[in-house]
Every structure is written in C-alpha cells, then in structure tokens.
Write a structure and sequence with these properties.
The N terminus and C terminus are likely disordered. With 914 residues, this protein is an alpha/beta fold. The chain contains 28 helices and 26 strands. Among the domains are: 229 residues, Hexokinase, domain 1 (3-Layer(aba) Sandwich), CATH 3.40.367; 154 residues, 2-Layer Sandwich (Nucleotidyltransferase, domain 5); 206 residues, Hexokinase, domain 1, CATH 3.40.367. The radius of gyration is 39 Å and the shape is elongated. Strands 1-11-10-9-12-13 form a 6-stranded mixed sheet, with helices on both faces. Bound molecules: 6-O-phosphono-alpha-D-glucopyranose (2 copies) and beta-D-glucopyranose (2 copies). It is a peripheral membrane protein. Belongs to the hexokinase family. Its main location: cytoplasm.
C-alpha cells in the first residue's frame, strides 16, 4: 500500500483529506512499480529477446531481421528520397549527402483516419499522391531517385527492399495489407499513378531509421528507440561469427502478449486494451506509448470521478469519450508551472477545482512515470544483452531516440535514463535525440544498401581483377606463354613520343569500324605541330571475307588512290600500318597475324606477315612505292597518340567493335624478348581473356549463344561479353527470351526481333540517353516490328543498362589489373598515370565512360588515373612510331656508312702500319 502526504494543500477538511489521499493513492498504487518489479520486467524482456531470436517470429517479441549490416561510415553520398509513414504524420523528404554533410528538405502530410482504416489500395494511392506533390514541390518529377521507405510497423523482411507487414499497430487498420509486401504495394501505387518513378532501395522500421540517423553523428550509436505514438527498439545484434552484426527490430511492444506482464497490468490497462483496434496485442506498447497513455489517464479519471473523488463525482459525456485525453495534454499538465491545468481541463469540457487539478496531475505523473520506467527496464535488458554478447565487463553505448513522448514530455527522458542506469549498472548509456526523424536514416540505409550492392559487385570484380593479373604474368613467362589465354605480344615500341619526332608520313588504319588512310605531317617550327588529312575507304563484306590477296590488293589500291589525291605518288614516304588484330612481332616492321577477330576472315592471311603481304600487293601494282616502317596494333597507336599530348600515358585501350589493351612493361619481365633494361609496350590481346575457361562462372547462356553464332567460336570470349560488335546482339537475345516468357511485348515475337544483328550497340547508346531515350526506344522498337507499351520501354532500357554496365565493370576489372601491375613494377605507394582510350562504344555511349572511370577508381584506390580520349584515332600514333623508326633507321644508316668508312680507314691504316 502506498502512503504519501502530498495532499496537504487540498482545500478540504482534515479527515476528508486523509480519506482522499488514501483512496487516490490506492487507485494509483498499481502504477508505482518497485525496484524488484522493474528487475522482473527487465528479466522478462531479456527472456523475450532471446526467445524471439530463437523462434524467429513466432514469440511475443518478434526480433525481425532488418538486413542492415552496418551503421553509416560517412562515405555515403548522393540524393535520396525518404518516405516516412507510421508516426503522427507522413513525411516526404529529400536528403543530399555530400562530404559527411546531409542537407534535408521535407514536407509533412496528414493521413486522414478514413485512409488509415480504409483499403490498402487507398492508403498507398494516398501516399503516392503525397509523393507526387512533394516531387512537384522539389521540381524533381523526372529524377527517378533512389528512395528509402520508413514503414513504422512490424515487417517480416527477406531482403533490405522487401517487407511483409505482420500486423498493423497503433491507429492503422487498412485492409488487404497484412501478409503483403509493402514495397510492392507502394511500387504498384506509383505505377497506377503513372506520373513518376522511384527506385525503392530499402524499407526500414522507424527505430532502424533513427539509429542510422544518430549513428551518422555518433558512431557509438547501435540502438534505436522510439517512444512516440508507439514504442519499439532495434539494436545491432551479432548474427553469426562471420557476418558479425545485423540490426534487429525487436518489436518490443509485443512483450506481454503471452501473458508475461499480467502481474503488473492494471484494470485500466485492460480496459484500454479491450477498446483498442488490436486487443490482446502490443501489451507492453499499451503500457508505455503515446497512443495509450492519455487513454489510461482517462480511465483512471473516470474511475476516480465515479468514486466521487474528482469533479465532484460528476461524470461528463466528455470524460466518457475515448481518445479525448491525448498524450500531449499529459505532457502539458505535467509541465505544470505556468500552465493552468484547470484551463486544459476546461478545454476538455471538464470543470475542475484546484484540488481536482492536483489529482489529475498526480494521475498523469503516475502513468507517465510507469511508462518511462518500463522503457528503462526494457532498455536495461537490451544494453546488458549487447554487453554480454560482446563479452565485456563494461559497455559504452549510445541510443538514438525519437518520438513525441520522449521529446515533449518533461520527465520521460530523465526517468528513462535513471531507470536504465539503476538496472544496468555495468553500462554507460547515452541517449541521443534524433534531430531529423528517421527519414534521414532511411536515406542513409538506401545509400548503404547501394554501397553494399556495389561492394558485392566489387567482390566479383576484385576476383576478376586478380585473375586477370595472374593471366598477365602467365602470358609474359617463356614457359607459360604457349598455354596462356593472354598472348602478351611484344610490340618493339620502347618509348612514348618525346617531342622530337618530325617528318611526313602515311598511316594506314585497318581493323576498326572504318578503314582510314592518313597523311601526318609533324613539323618543328617553334613547337611541334601535327597536320593531318585523312580519307575513309570502304571495306565491303565480300573483301574482308574473301581471299587475303584480294584484301591486300584492295588496301594497296586505296593507298594508291590516296597518294594520287595527295599528289605524292612519286615520293616514297614512310608508312605506319595500324593493323588492329593480334600479330606476332620480332621487329617493328613485321607482324604475323595470329588469328582474325571481329568481322574479318580473309583467307590465307593467318600465320603470314601482313607487312610482306602489303608490300607484295604494292609491288604488283608498280605505280607507286612505299616504305612500311612499322606495324602497330590500334591500342599501341592510341597510347602513342595520347602520349603525344601527355608524357605520362603508358596504357592504351580500345573499347569499340573489339576490345584490347597495351601497356609499358619492364623489359626484364618480358621473357620473350632479350634484354633487361628499359621498357617495351606489350599488346595484351585481352579480348582472349577467358578462352581457357576462366570466365565460365560469369558467362551467361546469352554469351554462349553469341559465341556459337560467331565466326570464331571459343575465341575472344571476353571481347564477346563486352565489346560493341556483340552488345546489341546480347540485348536482342535477352529480349527474345523475355518475349518468349511473356515478360515483354505481350509475348509477341516478330521476325525482325528474331533477326541477328537487328539490334545494334548504337541503339543501346541511344536508349540510355536520358533525354531522348524514350522516343528513341519507341523508334527502335517500332523498327523491330513490336508495339511497345510504357512498361516495355522501361524493361528494354533496363536490359540495355544491365548489358552496358556489365561491360564497363568487366573492362574496369581488367584495366585495374594492368594498373596494379604498373604500380607493382614501379614499387610506388601511389600510382599516377594516364590511360589513352579510343573506340566507338566508349565514345558514343552516354554513361559508359563515367561508369568505367568510377569502377576503376574503386578497384585501385591508391591511383590517380587520367583517362585521355584519343581525339585523332590511332593513325597519328602509328605515325609517331614510324617517326621514331625512321629516325633510328636513318641514323643507323649514317652510322653504318660511318662505321664502314672508319673500318676502311682502319684497314688502310692497318695495312700501312703492319
Ligand atoms: C520519427 C520518425 C517516424 C516515427 C516517429 C515516432 O520522427 O521519423 O517515422 O514513427 O519518429 O514518433 P511519433 O511520436 O510521431 O510516433
Ligand atoms: C581508333 C583507331 C582504329 C581502331 C578504332 C576502334 O579510332 O584508329 O584503328 O580500331 O579506334 O574503334 P571502333 O569502334 O571503330 O572499333
Ligand atoms: C510498431 C513498430 C514501431 C513503433 C514505433 C509500433 O507500433 O509496431 O514497428 O517501430 O510502433 O513507431
Ligand atoms: C583485336 C585487337 C584489337 C581490338 C580492338 C580485337 O579484336 O584482337 O588486336 O586491338 O580488337 O580493335
């Protein structure tokens, strides 16, 4: 029995006072929990947490996995939308994370009661409408933002972006939602609206959002608490030895649903439970959260009035009205000082005396104090569990907190903290109120989720990068080269241009989408300048697939034509020959074609020296002469072109019809070439990566089909996954399969769609252009004979993105392998280098370059890479190589004649003396 002498102020006779004090105290007594009772609640909460973890969802405390594995680390960036449903208001928010800073814009919307308790479709349509209004307000309707959805109800999750509503709580009761995935429901509502699109990346409980929000400020924050309309806690739990932690949404509001709190539940609580929309459920929540505290107070006031202890025993209709006594009044009454409780009571239509006011305040105090103590007992169980999980004697931890009760009530936060301290003396718990609600946290989780996705991708890419590095080494070794997929061909180019090159040169450029002949004049008046003229010639299908003789006759004929037009048929200019196929070289002006790639398949050329074949064809004509001084791969030409502008350039890559890379390797590592001093450019021929089966794990059925239908099955497998000649076809094959399964074009397959080559890589580039992508897609798909719906556009564009993203990522992994090798060769902690790039895919695709650069920088973090686009093709580079060769040959001719004369002199001298 509780006896206190607090009613001495009351304006009643002494005997009446004693009786009043006694009776009011008696009524409030069950709300006053002893230390022992609170210890018991703590123990029951602890047992509830353990049982929930073991039984996975079937016990009173659900312990729901959130699929959030870590708190923010400050690297999150980008713009995110956050939708926040389930607290007092619905809130839409835009969060922009930039350099450890978050900028927020939000708008609050009310959800009318009839919507909260209408149909699920109405509820989600209403949310979509609010989002639409917010996007208008922000001017971001077309932004297709990633979004995080704070949904403050218990959800069964199987991934970060799915959540099946277990049961409604608080004031919600919309039909057809329980048992359904709320993310799908939101997506469908957005689709129904057909006005904007969102990429919903994550669904999170408000506790999780709050924890993340606060952890952004304080890394020790590993618990989220809501003391608002409802109540709940989440915390970082050790889920297994390997993965370490995952945030668990406890749904502690369910404690007592199995009867474990019956000994502390008062008749008033029972009444509140009976009148709620979910009787028997959320028993702990009904003792502690904002939605119910006012109701409990009203029940007590009703009882006291009926007993004649309040309002002169006068029970008004107002007092009988459920919900009339809101929790905010509780906070206001307990703030006491300036506020006249009587005026609040009057506002409620309750005419009370001063004495009544004191009693009402007592009631409010008892109810709110019990709530804060119970939350404190629960919190003590949580922090003790974390401490024990980690095997610590002492734990320092921060709890991120949100909710109107915590924030607005004058004593709740203090009592909560005191109780936690007393019941968990080995833990030092800091409560950190969340400033911006859990929306910011939901946005952070979306950012983390995206990063996690990227990390897992990086995991695969890191593997590929490492494999590629091993293959590079294998191709360089004398014994391992014969069986290596990467041929690592020496090019006999030993340095990049040094600015001393000069002269008048012809460059032939064969093997890309165009056959081009160029005249390159390099002069040195004041500074080095380059003049170029070029012409593109046709290489018809029948020529590139005919005999080798015809092909080289054609090249010689085009060269004759070009020289005639240039009026230089009578000169014997030095010629550089860019030949974009794998060639075995032992010197600069010799190249034995190993195998044709891409579209070329002229007979009788493989195994032959292409310089000889071209010389033969020129000689056969007899109308002009040419001095072919160098044959270079297009990657080498590109590296040299870019090296002309940037001396740091030591890698050349092509991402066009085909793909390939070359780089400057230390001569001591190239077993196939004599000598240890200096460097030589090596043509990796990376298109053949995987030809030994190394990429089987990641090749898809579509890659295999492309390979089967190609002119070189089993070869250039990496090239076939990533380069321009094949990407369009990959998209077409995927679309055919999707159509067969009825996923696009209403299952209709047209003859055009079935025609090989009808969908080109340039179409991918056009569709992925954000501005005109949609109308282009319509045009392209119409040409394929299909009548696409809006959904079809979006699916086709997603397929394009998947295929082009994969390409950029795979190329990034291989390029990262080369950069790692350069770094190792140089023995530097940080590599500063330039990569020269050319090729139609890289140049034409709207996002390819950006994606590639980003992925490379992520894979080799300690590198400053400059990506330099080769503006003038590889012809200019071929001319540079020729210039060096010409100078060497020229100076060696002088040297030989000098040596001969010296020799002659010596022999004369010799003869004379001896
Ligand atoms: C935060 C969150 C809400 C959450 C609320 C609880 O502000 O953003 O999603 O439900 O706290 O507070 P309330 O007191 O409104 O229930
Ligand atoms: C450069 C070179 C070509 C090379 C081409 C690759 O422009 O001069 O020799 O083959 O890039 O691009 P493409 O996209 O035409 O295959
Ligand atoms: C819900 C929780 C939520 C809490 C606080 C409870 O009713 O079940 O999911 O976290 O309210 O909003
Ligand atoms: C060839 C390479 C060439 C690349 C880019 C590949 O098919 O094998 O030699 O560099 O295409 O054009």
């Amino acid at each position: 029995m509780c006896h206190h002498n607090r009613f001495l102020l009351l304006n009643v006779a002494k005997s009446d006072i004693i009786s009043l004090v006694f009776q009011v105290d008696e009524t409030l007594c069950p709300f006053k929990l002893s230390q022992e009772q609170l210890q018991l609640v703590k123990a029951r909460m602890r047992a509830g947490l353990e049982a929930g973890l073991k039984t996975k969802g079937s016990s009173a405390i659900k312990m729901l996995p959130s699929y959030v594995y870590r708190t923010p680390d400050g690297t999150e960036h980008g713009k995110y939308l956050a939708l926040d449903l389930g607290g007092t208001n619905f809130r839409a928010m835009m969060v922009n994370f930039k350099r450890q800073n978050a900028r927020l814009y939000h708008k609050i919307y009310t959800i009318p009661l009839e919507i909260m308790q209408g149909t699920g479709e109405e509820l989600f349509d209403h949310i979509a409408q609010c989002v639409s209004d917010f996007l208008d307000y922000m001017g971001m309707k077309n932004a297709h933002l990633p979004a995080g959805f704070t949904f403050s109800f218990p959800c069964e999750q199987t991934a970060i972006d799915t959540g099946t509503l277990v049961s409604w709580t608080k004031g919600y009761k919309a039909t057809d939602c329980e048992g359904h995935d709320v993310v799908s429901m939101l997506r469908e509502a957005i689709k129904r609206r057909n006005e904007f699109d969102l990429d919903i990346v994550a669904v999170v409980n408000d506790t999780v959002g709050t924890m993340m929000s606060c952890a952004y400020e304080d890394p020790q924050c590993e618990i989220g608490l809501i003391a608002g309309t409802g109540t709940n806690v989440c915390y970082m739990e050790e889920v297994d030895a390997e993965l370490s932690k995952m945030c668990i949404n406890t749904e502690w509001g369910g404690l007592g649903d199995d009867g474990s709190l019956d000994d502390i539940i008062t008749p008033y609580d029972m009444e509140v439970n009976q009148n709620s929309i979910n009787p028997g459920r959320q028993r702990f929540e009904k003792l502690t959260s904002g939605m119910y505290l006012g109701e409990i107070v009203r029940q007590v006031l009703l009882d006291l009035t009926r007993g004649g202890l309040l309002f002169r025993g006068h029970v008004t209709e107002t007092l009988k009205t459920p919900g009339i006594f809101e929790t905010k009044y509780l906070s206001q009454i307990e703030r006491w000082e300036k506020l006249c409780v009587r005026s609040i009571l009057q506002q409620l239509g309750l005419k009370g005396t001063c004495d009544d006011s004191i009693i009402v305040k007592e009631v409010c105090g008892a109810v709110s104090r019990r709530a804060a103590q119970l939350c404190g007992a629960g919190m003590a169980a949580v922090v003790d569990k974390i401490r024990e999980n980690r095997g610590l004697d002492h734990l320092n931890i921060t709890v991120g907190v949100d909710g109107a009760l915590y924030k607005l009530h004058p004593h709740f936060s203090r009592v909560l903290k005191d109780t936690t301290e007393v019941l968990a003396p080995q833990c030092n718990v800091t409560f950190l109120p969340s400033e911006e609600g859990s929306g910011k946290g939901a946005a952070l989780i979306s950012a983390v989720a995206r990063q996690m996705h990227a990390d897992s991708l990086s995991g695969t890419l890191l593997d590929i990068m490492q494999q590629f590095r091993r293959e590079l080494a294998k191709g360089l070794g004398r014994d391992t080269n014969p069986t290596a997929a990467l041929k690592m061909l020496p090019t006999f180019v030993r340095s990049i241009p040094d600015g001393s090159e000069k002269g008048d040169f012809i460059a032939l450029d064969l093997g890309g989408s165009n056959f081009r002949i160029l005249r390159v004049k390099v002069s040195h008046e004041k500074k080095q300048t380059v003049q170029m003229e070029s012409q593109i010639y046709d290489t018809p299908e029948d020529i590139i697939h005919g005999s080798g003789t015809r092909l080289f006759d054609h090249v010689a004929e085009c060269l004759g034509d070009f020289m005639e037009k240039q009026n230089i048929k009578d000169k014997k200019l030095p010629v550089g020959f860019t030949f974009s196929f794998p060639c075995q070289q032992t010197k600069l002006d010799e190249g034995f074609l190993i195998t044709w790639t891409k579209r070329f398949k002229a007979g009788g050329v493989e195994g032959m020296d292409v310089v000889k074949l071209l010389n033969k064809a020129i000689k056969k004509r007899g109308d002009y002469d040419a001095d072919i001084m160098a044959v270079v791969n297009d990657t080498v030409g590109t590296m040299m072109t870019c090296g002309f502008d940037d001396q740091r350039c030591e890698v050349g890559i092509i991402i066009g019809t085909g793909t390939n890379a070359c780089y400057m390797e230390e001569l001591r590592n190239i077993d196939l070439v004599e000598g240890d001093e200096g460097r030589m450019c090596v043509n990796t021929e990376w298109g053949a990566f995987g030809d030994d089966g190394r990429l089987e794990d990641i090749r898809t059925e579509f890659d295999r089909e492309i390979d089967r239908g190609s002119i070189n099955p089993g070869k250039q497998l990496f090239e076939k996954m990533v380069s321009g000649m094949y990407m369009g076809e990959l998209v077409r094959l995927i679309l055919v399969k999707m159509a067969r399964e009825g996923l696009v074009f209403e299952g209709r397959i047209t003859p055009e769609l079935l025609t090989k080559g009808k969908f080109e890589t340039k179409h991918i580039s056009a569709i992925e252009k954000s501005k005109e992508g949609l109308s282009k897609a319509r045009e392209i798909l119409t040409r394929l004979g299909v009548e696409p719906s809006t959904d079809d556009f979006s699916l086709v564009s997603q397929v394009c993105t998947v295929v082009s993203f994969r390409s950029a990522n795979l190329i990034a992994a291989a390029l990262a392998g080369i950069l790692m090798r350069l770094k190792e060769n140089k023995g530097v902690a940080r590599l500063r280098t330039t990569v020269g790039i050319d090729g139609s895919l890289y140049k034409m695709h709207p996002q390819y370059a950006r994606r590639l650069h980003k992925a490379v920088r992520r894979l080799v973090p300690d590198t400053d890479v400059r990506f330099l686009l080769s503006e003038s093709g590889s012809g200019k580079g071929a001319a540079m190589v020729t210039a060096v060769a010409y100078r060497l040959t020229y100076s060696s001719r002088i040297f030989w004649s000098y040596l001969q004369s010296v020799h002659a002199f010596f022999s004369i001298y010799h003869r004379n003396v001896f």
